[in-house]
Amino acid sequence: MTEFNREEERRQILYRYKHLLVTCKNIVTRADIKLVRKAFELSLKDHDGERRRNGEPAIYKSISIAQIVVEELGLGRTSVICSLLYDIVQKDRISLDEISELFGPKVTLIIQGLVKVTNIYNQNPSLQSENFRKLLLSFADDVRVVLIIMADRLFNLRNLENKSVEEQQSLSKEIEFLYIPFAHRLGMYNVKSDMEDLALRYLNPDVYFEIEKKLKDSEEQRQKYIKDFVDPIKAELDQFGMKYKVKARTKSIASILHKMQKKQVEFEEVYDIFAIRIILKATPKKEKSECWKVYSAVSDLYRPNPNRLRDWITIPKSNGYESLHTTVMGPDNRWVEVQIRSKRMNRIAEQGFAAHWKYKGGKSEEGGLDAWLQDIREVIESHGSDSIDLIDSFKADLYHKEIYVFTPKGDLKQLSAGATLLDFAYSIHSDVGDKCIGGTVNQKNVSIKQILNNGDQVSVTTSNSQKPKLDWLNFVVSTKAKNKIRQTIKEEMLKEADLGKETLKRRMKNWKIEFCDENIRKLMTFYKYKIAADLYQGIALEQHELSEIKDILTDKKEIEKIVPEERPDYSSKKITKEGEDVLIVDENVSNVEYSLANCCNPIFGDEIFGFISIGKGIRIHRLGCPNASEMQTRYPYRVVKANWTDKGSASYQAVLHITGDDELGIVSNISDVISKDLRVQMRSISVDTNAGSFVGNVTVVIASTEHLDTLIVKLKRVKGVHRVTRYDPVN
Question: Is 220 exposed, middle or buried (0-12, 13-18, 19+ CB in 10 A)?
Fold first, then answer.
């Protein structure tokens, strides 16, 4: 390389460094500048002579990442220093102890997290592995770790053009999978849009370039339409003497594609390709009223769609986003979205709220950044090493929509769309959730499964005897609720295991049998347990006879002398009961008793399975049984396949849950429908009424699921009945 080129590179490095300082608005004191300069000089010295694959000086990348961190993510001095230094720390050119001495513990902690994440990537870039969990645990230590790593991945994404197709697709999939959700959840919509477009470019280039070309071809026509639309609004706002800027924002290519796929339309049929953004210069006290004044001016000029008004200035989104959105009918009968916000709101919308709350002198609040980070950590830690389950939970949490409900005192609670009464209970306090047995929604009694809607007024009823159950995980949607339920059940299991262990110790002492690893392994092998805790819990729940355990340990019974592989396997047998050949499980075997489980009341026609119970034969459960998940997960070796024969038994018990209006004679009408069906017997009926509504349970004896479905249809036709469902009592 010529001396001229080296000199040009030095000038370019100095220019980029000065531009970084100018952009970083909170680097104002001499002490700040001194620290940043020291970090820059260390990075420059250790990168001296080192080049990237494209031939550029390696220091370019460090400065560029720091620039993204400042300019696009809104962070400041500490993050700039970390961005400049973590690469040389990762390469062991400077130690963490030296970093701590020069820059303090906070910089050291963040760099330590950055190095940890970088090492994980180098070891195994696969996201569906234990590395994914470690990666997120690093993120949750300090949000600046994820933001700087996000800047690093964004820099790489913007410089993929000359990389191999494999490298392009690998990084794009990673960005799509992990970092786009992060950017979305942290409110960084500009970064998110950029990532979406670039990822789409490499994952689906044909579609990307087709839409890009159509946008360029329609640019002139679009700009003319925007001018015709905006000019009357400007004239109106000028009359009010307001200070503002109007911007036209074209949707990202990825957003346009999503709209085309969602609406099943062609590019030419997507009418909201752009949105108008009006940004006001207003003081914090007046910004809301000024935004509504602009809305009034816009809606006077153009007819608004009342179903498309979005008020996020009264109640901001959970990621801090504030804006007033309306969709109005513009010229040529085209719908146009108008976004109205203040300069402060716009800054948060573009850069995200993370930097502006905790790291620029602002104060966090309940439900804000710190709470979200804690939720993320709880989710990660609760899933153990099950990365696939973690991924689903994590992404679902990031992309959730929100509803707003009220406590009895009128306090506002923000929940995920689809949240139930139980989610609401856990949002108040973990103890309230654990003890929740039901509640009221808009003064009507409801179950813990009741799904909440915007504006509902909700109260909770608790009982000290209530405990979380495994099936609760099937209908709660919030991370906090799921995590607390899992934690409580796990604690309960550990208590039971401790009790079972003490019971076994005491009995073995009485039997004069040593309590040792060899004997415990003998029991675990016999009962096919993988961990000792499950054995102890089984003993506590009286699933194993202590006399049988003694015989196993002393080898007194002939059956216990059979090695486990030779023990009778109930998982591939035909189960019969004299006079009722209704269940088949492969081959024939005699003298195996079965019974229908009371927890789910299987009916001929249900999808079923068998569960080998200790001393009680085989219990038949529905696949949808509230206890099915626990049995199949914890005791898979005791689960047997089962199917009905073509005959079926004559009668099965079922419970119907009925809700409706509390009208005169409605119970009599329900009873009349049931009694007229000669193949149905009604065992009992119970009804509760409240505020003009009724909730009732009807127990019937019926022949099959097909017949039950017919009865449900008949009951739904009764005047005043709103809903009829099959009810599963939970043990």
Answer: exposed
**How much is the pLDDT for 639?**
80
Match 């006079």 to its residue by tokens: 579
For residue 417, how many other CB atoms are within 10 A of its CB? 13
Please answer whether residues 423 and 476 qualify as being in contact, where contact means their C-beta atoms are separated by less than 8 angstroms.
Answer: yes
- d(CA 611, CA 618) in angstroms, rounded, equals 5
For tokens 């990762």, the residue is 90
Statement: residue 532 has pLDDT above 60: yes
Torsions phi, psi of 389, nearest 5? -60, -40
pLDDT band at 363 (very low <50, low <70, confident <90, very high): very low
User: Rounded to an integer, what distance in angstroms lies between the CA atom of residue 148 and that of residue 152?
Assistant: 6
Contact 503, 495 (CB under 8 A): no
**Separation of alpha carbons 622 and 634, rounded Å:** 17
**pLDDT exceeds 80 at position 555:** no
Dihedral in degrees, nearest 10, Cα atoms 625, 627, 630, 636:
-60
DSSP calls for 448-502: TTPBP-TT-BEEEEE-TT----GGGGGT---HHHHHHHHHHHHHHHHHHHHHHHH
The side-by-side arrangement of strands in the sheet containing 639-641 is: 594-596, 618-622, 608-612, 639-641
Estimate to the nearest angstrom the gap between the alpha carbon of 34 and the chain centroid: 43
Query: CB neighbours of 350 closer than 8 A, spacing ≥ 6?
Result: 188, 189, 190
Helices (H), 511-608: 517-527, 532-540, 546-554
Segment 242-251 mean pLDDT = 90
- At 603 the pLDDT is 84
The model's pTM: 0.55
State the first-to-last Cα distance of the chain, in angstroms, to the nearest integer.
79
Beta strand ranges found along 191-323 (DSSP E): 244-250, 274-280, 303-304, 310-311
pLDDT at 379 over 90: no
What CA–CA distances, in Å, run from 412 to 60, 313, 323, 429?
48, 15, 19, 15
- The band of 26, judged by pLDDT with boundaries at 50, 70 and 90, is low
Q: Is the pLDDT of residue 669 over 60?
A: yes
